Amino acid sequence: GKFKTMEAQRPSFVVGSPSIIRNTEAAVFNAQLRRSQPKIGRSFAGLRTRNAVDGVQPVPKSQDRTRQVTFEVSCSSVAPRKVLVIGGTRFSGVYLVKALQDAGHEVTLFNRGKTPMPKLHNETESAFERRMKEIRTIVGDRKSADSIRSALQYEKFDVIYDNNGREAKDTKPLADLFADKIEHYIYMSSAGTYKMDDSSLPYRESDPVDPKSRHKGKFESEEYLRSIKIPFTSVRPTYIYGPENYNEVEAWFFHRIYAGRPVPIPGHGQHVTGMGHVVDLADAMVKIIGNPKVQGQIYNIQGDRYVTFDGLARACAEAMGKGDIDIVHYNPKDFNFGKRKAFPFRLQHFFTDISKAVNELDWTPKYSLVEGLADSYWNDYVSKALAGKVSPDFSTDDEILAKAGKVPAAV
Question: 350: number of CA atoms within 13 Å, CB side?
Fold first, then answer.
């Protein structure tokens, strides 16, 4: 059905929601979660975790607990570079390009020329137009070695950001072309490369990868870059969220809470995950330029806290200015959804240690989880919902809720 309309009145949310787990000592987790769990999946109680920050102080927060969430990146003292961004017109690439420009770098995009650059919510039209005039775009197909060679063989850049390489065969032509004439090759990898092991968390950069992961092409790309001795750095984010997110991450929760529906969460709801705001990711990636410590290194990027699935649902409600929500747990083995996706997260503990990035990139996440979710909701989701531009599929929810006696199954 259609979403109900609502008045977009921003809530006064509290920074530092108690539903979020701070990225520090293992005892915090076990104290919170050492209670009886439904026999679905593995319980978090008793899980051995590592100190995720190794003495790094928590990110300082403003004393103003209702501060406006804005897009800011640290000003750079690094000399301007000529930067090539592969892609650059969708979600994380959009924020990266703006962060690079704000730091004074000269940006060129290489993409198929099919997706226009969107204006960010806090930019004026005139500022956006001025910024667009400073960006050069070279049209080509990054999956075609011939296209890369013909479009880029005579170009000179100091730094390359490979934002959308999924397989080593995609990375190879670009890396080979610039191997001996580039200062830095910065690769967007994924924390999804780690081998699942909930006996020792959070995941660190030195942990083994999963050769069967759907992200194995990311790891293979990292290995290829290392083998050809190109000066590279790889970034492994967890779940990235924020305005303009085309992946159904935070929006999955927004859909259900906005519509006043129960939120069906698989398992016991205590699986713990890591989330990172897209602005914090862009800030970290820009800080790689000109840093002599980072060549040949891999960095995990996410926020400075972890959160359970249940806690994430409550954090979304808090960011939206809503009250209590109805969370319904279910056993996913009781259903056959086919190719339909009932939940957007891995049903496992999935979070990383960011202390290496904090220490070596001189970087700290700026967004608390609730602030970041509020940014995504009020500066993106609300306008799209009111304009009728969101059309969630609740068919799997209806099956789950019908079995739980909540609502009748969809006809």
Answer: 20
